[in-house]
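Record type: monomer structure entry
Structure origin: computed from sequence
Chain ID: A
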Amino acid sequence: MYYQPFSYENNAHDARPLQQVLREIAKAINDEFQAIHYYTRLAELAPSNQFRQMILGIRQDEIKHFHWFSRAYHELTSKYPPITLGVQLPGSFKRGVHDSIKDEQETVPLYHKIASQVQNQQISQRFLRAAADEQRHAQIFSQMAAGI
């Protein structure tokens, strides 16, 4: 049986799937943007330098993801992604850590979904790498939660 690879450019019916994936990438970009600011505040609330350094390391990963995803969005659209301001910052370290565990875990399936839907192998690999980072972040936050 002849197999034609899925291509957004060659199929008029593909505009809908492309628009959906672009919405998901835009969501991922905004989630990363918010995480950067959230973790900045969480690091300020950290009760120890060890926790602060761990959070700042996670924040660096989120900055990297933000840049990767923004670049991917631009490659696919020739436009810059829409960024939504208005991050709800943590009020306490303990609550912030628990919310971070949940957020990091919920992000993984979205990144896997995007990776499976994009045609560009480099973009797909970056989303898979980010998903692995998010899983690692959830483990780090879980360790922090056990230590508070």
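Annotation 1: The CA atoms of residues 2 and 57 lie 48 Å apart.
Annotation 2: Helices lie at 15-45, 49-77, 93-117, 121-147.
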